[in-house]
Amino acid sequence: MKQIEHIGVAVKDLDVSCSLYEKLLGTSCYKKEEVKSEGVNTAFFKTGVNKIELLAATSQDSPIAKFLERKGEGIHHIAFEVDNIELEMKRLKHEGFVLLNELPKQGADNKLVCFVHPKGTNGVLVELCQEKI
């Protein structure tokens, strides 16, 4: 894994949270995007080399809606940039980690993604991200 790619934050209202983060970070949201496969709307902020992804559910049965129901708003996941997501997935499986998807899937911000089950990472949902070519 190369570096932290972004930190994902689950929010109830994307517009309200975008305003809050614009004030907090002193910068504007640079990208909003819907990821239909995950039932989520996203908004990205960049401060220095760091990125924050706000995630709001688009349906009651989306993973973010379920997360918000159980835990409320807050940090949802930490994402790591990888050079080759398929090789990294194979490595992690070999190390005994449980992946939430068997193949990389389309994520936000032009990325291929895969999630690692939080039961094997001390309760932290980990996302692998590879820039799509």
Automatic annotation (TrEMBL):
**Molecular functions per Gene Ontology:** metal ion binding; methylmalonyl-CoA epimerase activity
For this UniProt record, give its keywords in alphabetical order, as a comma-separated list.
Metal-binding
* UniProt keyword 4Fe-4S, yes or no: no
Keyword Metal-binding listed? The answer is yes
Against InterPro entries, the record matches this protein to:
Glyas_Bleomycin-R_OHBP_Dase (IPR029068), MeMalonyl-CoA_epimerase (IPR017515), MMCE/EMCE_epimerase (IPR051785), VOC_core (IPR037523)
List the GO biological process terms.
L-methylmalonyl-CoA metabolic process
Q: Which Gene3D superfamilies match?
A: 2,3-Dihydroxybiphenyl 1,2-Dioxygenase, domain 1
Q: Please give the Pfam families that the UniProt record associates with this protein.
A: Glyoxalase_4
Q: What are the VOC domain coordinates in residue numbering?
A: 3-131
Output the PROSITE patterns linked to this UniProt entry: VOC
To which protein family does this belong?
A: Belongs to the methylmalonyl-CoA epimerase family.
NCBIfam families per record: metmalonyl_epim
Official protein name in the record: Methylmalonyl-CoA epimerase
